[in-house]
Amino acid sequence: xxxxxxxxxxxxxxxxxxxxxxxxxxxxxxxxxxxxxxxxxxxxxxxxxxxxxxxxxxxxxxxxxxxxxxxxxxxxxxxxxxxxxxxxxxxxxxxxxxxxxxxxxxxxxxxxxxxxxxx
Length: 119
Prior knowledge:
By secondary structure, this protein is an alpha+beta fold. It has two domains: 3-44, no CATH class; 50-118, no CATH class. 16% of the residues lie in helices and 34% in strands. It has two helices and eleven strands, in the order H-E-E-E-E-E-E-E-E-H-E-E-E. The protein has helices at residues 3-14, 95-101, and strands spanning 19-23, 26-30, 41-44, 50-51, 63-66, 75-80, 84-87, 93-94, 102-105, 113-114, 117-118. The strands form three sheets. It has a six-stranded antiparallel β-sheet with strand order 8-7-6-5-9-10. It has a three-stranded antiparallel β-sheet with strand order 2-1-3, covered by helices on one side. The radius of gyration is 20 Å and the shape is elongated.
C-alpha cells in the first residue's frame, strides 16, 4: 500500500467513516486505530452484504412474521426445503421473498432476527 492509499484510509476515518485493521489473520473493525502501518494493515471497512438463509437456519419450532406491516400473527414453519419454506395458512415462501420482508424466531418469539445473514 502506497502513501496515497494510506492517506485515503486515514482521511475516510477522519471524516467519520469506518475502517478495518488486519490482525491475527483476519480483518477486524476498529473504532480507534493506532495507525501503526509497520505492524498492521488498514483499509476502508467493506460493506456487508445480505446472504439468504438456508434450511439449516430453520430448526423445528421456528416461527416467522412479516416485518414491514402491522399484520399480527406468527406463522409456524411446517416444511423447510432447499429453496423455500412452507408455513401454516400461507403459500410457499422462497428464501428470496423472506430476505426483504420477514423475520424469524427460533426461541418462541423472544428474539426476532431478519431473514438474512450479513456477511
